[in-house]
Amino acid sequence: MVGRSPKPKTDGTSLSRSEFLLHTSIVFAASVVLVNTFHGDGEPLAANVALALIGFSLCHSMVRWLGPTFIKAGFKGCDLSKPHRPEIPECMGAVCAAVYLLVLIVFIPFPFYKDIVAATSGGGNRDVVYQVEHVQQGRLLHRFPHSKLASYLSAIISLQTTALLGIGDDLFDIRWRHKWWIPGLAAIPILVVYFVDFGVTSVVLPIPLQPYLGELLDLGPLYYVYMACVAMFCPQSINMLAGINGIEVAQSLVISFLLVLNDALYLLTPYPHPATDSHLFSLYLLLPWIGVSVALLLHNRYPARVFVGDTYCYFSGMVFATVGILGHFSKTLGLLLVPQLANAAYSAPQLFGLVPCPRHRLPRFNPRTGLMEPSVTTWPPGRQPRPLVAVALRLLARLHLLRISEDEDGNITEASNMTLLNLWLVWRGPLREDRLALEVTILQLVVGLFGLFARHCLALLIFKEDNWALASATEVSS
Ligand code: UD1
Ligand code: MG
């Protein structure tokens, strides 16, 4: 990000010559791969990568072309961290989501190619003579893995509903108390599939608790409440760690890469693993998401030429919730969302109204230095934080977890807004916007890598055996 070479010269809405050549070659090469996969047995992973590349090119080109159209339609926002606050297109996550959903839909025949051939007796050949019992069984369709198709379709339904919520929020600025529970309802299709297809509601208990509560604790219906909460938390958590160029997409990309790494750990085991199918499913959803997100990041990185909007944040969170729930690793997902969890917990006093919460809490741009500083919240004249809140704020300030200002009488007059981005600036001092985004993205990566290490190595210290082994024996989710 720092010291980046100048952007290619275009009129702002058309592709440069080199971009045009790049995208044409990508689409051509990917199309060749797609056509060839049908000569083998479908080769779904190769087809998925090819479609992810096409998604990248399509998304990159469409975001560039559609900028003025979005502005004309009223989808625009001021970049608050630039000297002249330029107005740029907003809600470009909608383009990303649309391209991604199209890619997922086009991909449907590939993972089921072998099953379609088996179920229709040779690629749908109608001239085959059927035995009477085959006719009664309906073209062998009972052999088709309907449950896997149901998983895939339920993911698409939940994601589409979330895209609608995001676009609605970008259009109408829906209130928090109205919008936070909508992803929970959008998750119903995936929860139903989880119930029918997997249905595991037990969690493995750590060794010290096992003498009292046993090895497994069955949470029953509470497990579904927990998964609905995951679906509600993920979209909002990405949207709350936002407000500087590139950060929404960069954090999503880091989480996606770490999830892909986690999937690869299962898929690269030399022996067949019971969780292989779930992790393949996760890859099928994540690789195209990485493709379209990289394309969006190229436009949204500092200095941003488009904003991603709430649509991107919600949609991205829902992609993670969907793969976590249907891939049966929602707790592992939690380890990759530690910065988002910390940001939400730190924000709680402002979200619950204990501390004033302005409309925007993104860091403040200082036009004199060109650097970002912690933004502040102030108390209206004559008003003070409640005594207990004041004690807590002073304690946080002493621990260097907050910056406060006091008047001569010792009353708190302002406090830095309680977000991870502002806290990082309290610790690191004023930073340029791209530097701040880079450092927080690296933090996300380091914490996530440690989370995966803890999941696969340290977990053995408090759990009897790793889920790799447990999954085959007891089928618990990780
Ligand atoms: C959430 C945060 C809010 C933060 C905002 C920034 C909570 C409860 N809400 O609100 O504090 O200020 O995200 O996205 O945590 N913008 C920039 N530069 C960027 C990205 C956004 O200036 O790189 C500004 C633009 O004016 C843009 C606006 O933020 O139009 C988008 O804000 P919006 O997504 O509507 O805010 P919320 O999601 O409601
Ligand atoms: Mg937002």
TrEMBL record:
It is an enzyme of class 2 (transferase). It is a multi-pass membrane protein. Keywords: Endoplasmic reticulum, Glycosyltransferase, Magnesium, Membrane, Metal-binding, Transferase, Transmembrane, Transmembrane helix. Pathway: Protein modification; protein glycosylation. Its cofactor is Mg(2+). Belongs to the glycosyltransferase 4 family. This is UDP-N-acetylglucosamine--dolichyl-phosphate N-acetylglucosaminephosphotransferase.
